[in-house]
Amino acid sequence: MDRDRFPADPWRLVETRQSIEDVGLTETLFALGNGYLGMRGNPPEGRHAHEHGTFINGLHETFPIRHAEQAFGFAETGQTIINAPDAKIMRVYVDDEPLAFDVADFREYERVLDMRRGVLTRHMRWMTPSGKDVVVDLERMVSFEERHLAVMRVSVTVLNADAPVVINCQLVNRQDGEDVYGGMAPHASAPTAPAAFDPRKAEAIDERVLQPVEYWQEGLRSVLSYQVTRSGMTVAVIADHEIDTANEYTARTLIEPDIAKNVFRVQAKAGVPVTVTKFVSYHSSRGVPARELVDRGRRTLDRARVEGVEYQFEEQEAWCRDFWERSDVQVAGDDALQQAIRWCLFQLAQATARADGRGVPAKGLTGSGYSGHYFWDTEVYVLPFLTYTTPHWARNALRMRYHMLPAARRRAAQLNEAGALFPWRTINGEEASAYYAAGTAQYHINADVSFAVGKYVRATGDMRFLYTEGVDILVETARLWATLGFWRVNEDSAEVFHIHGVTGPDEYTTVVNDNLFTNVMARFNLRAASRVVREMADRAPDEYRAMMQRLDLDPAEADAWDAAADAMHIPYSEGLGIHPQDAVFLEKEVWDLENTPAEQHPLLLNFHPLVIYRYQVLKQADVVLALFLQGNHFTAEEKRADFDYYDPLTTGDSTLSAVVQSILAAEVGYRELALEYFHEAAFVDLEDLHRNTSDGAHVASAGGVWTALVSGFGGMRDHGGDLSFDPRLPAEWPSLSYKLRWRGMQLDVTVTATEITVAAERAEHGETEEPRDDVDFAVRGEMHTVRAGESVSVPLDGQGPILTGRPTLSDIGDAMREDGTRLSASVPVSTATTGIPIISGIIPVVSGQPVEEGNLGVDS
Ligand code: BGC
User: Which has the higher per-residue pLDDT, 102 or 538?
Assistant: First the structure.
């Protein structure tokens, strides 16, 4: 990061110099949101933008997916989040000259995302061409308390002269309305150019998306409302304005279907400020008429105005104080890192806090990347943070999956399975993944959701959720595994359960048999389902009866799930001493990442999928993720061997990878490497490391940053509901502190080089149904108990194993497959530039170094 422009500050993201070169990036970095409503960090002038984004979680349009070749069961209807009308605009003119930040002469400039206050501010001192010295301040917040509310305030003071000042507030439907300059909406005029080919961007829709319904003005209030053309959803935006000034002014208005203006013309006296406050309310719905939404919005604003603007900012700050009290993670002595960590945690709050039962889009509400879809990112990457800091947010997210069960059941049936199959990507519960190989085939989503249910219940003890809703998820997903898999008898006459034709988390290898991650996670899923069914029969007979009836469950099904789990095939290669990613993974050639030019990354934008699929090369952690999530089923030696094998094959082309690699590197002992991956994740957006932060923040990675801190360096595990710690504090860090909510208790954990301290308090709003007074936990295998109001310190003898450097391809180079062939690494040849290569049967490069003959290529 350019630290002159973005100085390190532990609580604030500060920009001291604006630039239009990277507006896309800064729009994302300075975005505000509350999980329901999101606003990119566009300046209020409303001009130069990468994307004038305002998003409402779940507000989407549908469109027919046009497959080049149709086949039965392909997803047919696409879904994409749409831009809600833009309420951010508050244009300033002095002497009728616009404040245009690309050309204006600024004497002072500072933009701040204050994460303690939950407010975006911008301070500017502008010297106009005619010599007026003008101070312009902006404050903007998207309320965490009132999820439909945003508040923004602009203050203008001409310091050295009297001058006419205009503050022009607008609501604009940019989605498909013409903007005030007559230009068409960005979607219509410039379909997201490389987007056509970059699967990480949103779909562009050419037709008009928002059909105007009701629009009017009354006093200083403006209203626009719409119905979404195909999805039928409705949305209303309402703005109220207040002006506060000792100067004379007039207020003017204009209303059309796609624009509402409230314009204040002020005769400003030198040194006399003008402040305009804009209260904005957004409501959207799947079925309620737009008119009704307008009424709701009026009520939101009536209340907010009575409470007043100061109250809103105070409430926001109080909300943030509570959030940080239960969620902060501190690394002593490094402001830059602390800033990055807090920025990531703040993104998690902004993406989830008031989603209130809607999902968590891959980019939160900071951009339209991945079309606003919900993926497994939520359950595996974001929910651990929610579960351990604000459990009811986790429950809300899980309830979203519960409510998707009817659609998931239909989808399972369409794919000839029993139970339920959750969509790989979706907004409304239906599968929206057009590319089934790297989409629908990721059946592991079922186990990921179940895993998150298990984690939530273990951490909270929320049996009511488990017995009434969670169990439905566990049973229906287990049913799918039971029919998807099948039995074979192996050479030792043992019956083995296999799962074929699925894709694991690594999207550079698709539709394979016995993907290790899937099998290991499905095993968890099957066991979790049978356990809860049996437990309910024992402990909750009423809920049990209701559940048996509701799900039409035969008790014998639970036996079948146990049998499948116990006989689950877990691929293992004796020859290499590792777990193959799937049944044929090791047969492939090894992609030589160490000799792949930087410009060929990410591989997905530079190679046909078939080229990639032919190689041992990973987009993201797969086996290595299983080693973490199901770590109690692998030995320390297995983890080390698997990590050594897969790390040099992992591109990290998905930002979901680095955090997992960091956690496993820390566990097995690669200390420097763990820190390197951690830095990559913590700064992935702040430094735009994947060059697509302009499409939105990488929310899963942000969640992973929390997990890497708490479970990677902090060493926390919760396998089987037992809390344990085995820390790996980096030598560079004096201490690491984090908070955990565990069964109604608030734990404060601090790790130093020599000890770990766990302090406990009763949580203010304990989620557990049986509040407890103490917590048992293990530190490196030894049990301890901490009581509420007390703390326990345990000395640490070092920080686990120490390995230097990192695993490399040359470690693989000597390895042999089961069939006696040696592994060799290569990069796909570009025949366009080199012509037809002469292949002699041997590729003489391993790890970029010529190797001795005995080690070459195929061994006969
Ligand atoms: C990753 C998926 C992820 C998606 C959305 C893709 O690049 O491979 O695992 O769910 O991004 O974040």
Answer: 538
